[in-house]
């Protein structure tokens, strides 16, 4: 096998040597659907008239989008999926409160180097932080995977993005990510895999790499991949759910594009309404009033994100309503034991159940028409957190600093 990480993963999972632009039928290593999409997937699965899923050990079903159920309709749909879990003997089912799917899969050791992991959720590219090929599909494709364990793909071409240098104080993985999305544009990497290289990427924590790969889809990419290294292996030690073989691009691998960036050029960034690539340095929009601050999501709901917010909020009081949602139960427990939880609660932050929370405007923190939320999430589409609302995206530090002042604020003022 030769080529890029994606070519190697598709070669292994299709059982032949394949290259970019080849069409393959691939064997899926793990399939994920959550409470929002499992309903549709199992409906299509039942319509196919198949009685048993391909492998109940390889299907992972975390409940995260609307937990605890916010409406009678959601409760009924969740009941339906729980029945499917029992009937099919699906072993990896996680009740609401365990965490967001893209946090739960890595924590439980399913996001592994070299694996092909398909989720019925667009941010399944997060698993690329561990050297996996992770991507999202629709519910009917997921039903096909439930039935056969296979799905067809066009092997993507790969863009090589290198970020060298050191991030400045007050500049985090989220700022780097927003900067790259701004430079690339929302469709600049459509149907490509993006491999990330360079000293700034190597310096990112595992959590930071998850932030980066999580937003690969916001450039249109099929996947975003960081080649696994010692940090990856340390995270997986004692956690990996299966054996794995890391794969790396060969020195002569063919990339369709190569981009170089200098980490020192990056200032704290904000994505302005209503597109994720509408990115500006925080200073350019500083002073914009906000009504709500939100720290959480699969992009930035991890312990280091809450810790950064706590560093800024310690001993102070927020000026606007501020919501924090730990990405998982495990993050919540660590926030409690480290004192971060107490610091944030004392500063006036409201905590809600680990899960997606208000990220996609379904419950728990919807904003009114004309209101503005500054969020650590990955999307700021029109109406995403409530009809007629405006969503800005920033790092946990920017959101915490802005929560203190009630307007978009450069976090360096508080560091
Ligand atoms: C509900 C789900 C299908 C959706 C996605 O695929 O991304 C959601 O997680 C989101 O972030 O908008
Ligand atoms: S936290 Fe937000 S972006 Fe992530 S899976 Fe949930 S709804 Fe989607």
UniProtKB/TrEMBL annotation:
Molecular function per GO: 3-isopropylmalate dehydratase activity; 4 iron, 4 sulfur cluster binding; metal ion binding
Transmembrane segments: none
Pfam families to which the protein is assigned, alphabetical: Aconitase
Protein residues bound to [4Fe-4S] cluster: 298, 356, 359
Swiss-Prot/TrEMBL catalytic activity: (2R,3S)-3-isopropylmalate = (2S)-2-isopropylmalate
Protein's pathway: Amino-acid biosynthesis; L-leucine biosynthesis; L-leucine from 3-methyl-2-oxobutanoate: step 2/4
Occurrences of domain Aconitase/3-isopropylmalate dehydratase large subunit alpha/beta/alpha (ranges): 23-282, 284-406
Record's keyword annotation contains Metal-binding: yes
UniProt cofactor(s): [4Fe-4S] cluster
Recorded coiled-coil stretches: none
Keywords: 4Fe-4S, Amino-acid biosynthesis, Branched-chain amino acid biosynthesis, Iron, Iron-sulfur, Leucine biosynthesis, Lyase, Metal-binding
Root EC class: lyase
Enzyme Commission code(s) on record: 4.2.1.33
Lineage: superkingdom: Archaea
InterPro entries, A to Z: Acnase/IPM_dHydase_lsu_aba_1/3 (IPR015931), Acoase/IPM_deHydtase_lsu_aba (IPR001030), Aconitase_4Fe-4S_BS (IPR018136), Aconitase_4Fe-4S_dom (IPR036008), HAcnase/IPMdehydase_lsu_prok (IPR011826), Homoacnase/IPMdehydase_lsu (IPR006251), IPM_dehydratase_rel_enz (IPR050067), IPMI_cat (IPR033941)
Note describing how the cofactor binds: Binds 1 [4Fe-4S] cluster per subunit.
Gene Ontology annotations of biological process type: L-leucine biosynthetic process
HAMAP family: LeuC_type2
NCBIfam families in the cross-refs: hacA_fam, IPMI_arch, PRK00402.1
Functional description taken from the UniProt entry: Catalyzes the isomerization between 2-isopropylmalate and 3-isopropylmalate, via the formation of 2-isopropylmaleate.
Annotated PANTHER family: HOMOACONITASE, MITOCHONDRIAL, HOMOACONITASE, MITOCHONDRIAL-RELATED
Family, per entry: Belongs to the aconitase/IPM isomerase family. LeuC type 2 subfamily.
Subunit and interaction comment: Heterodimer of LeuC and LeuD.
Protein name, UniProt field: 3-isopropylmalate dehydratase large subunit
Organism of derivation: Methanolapillus ohkumae
Gene of this entry: leuC
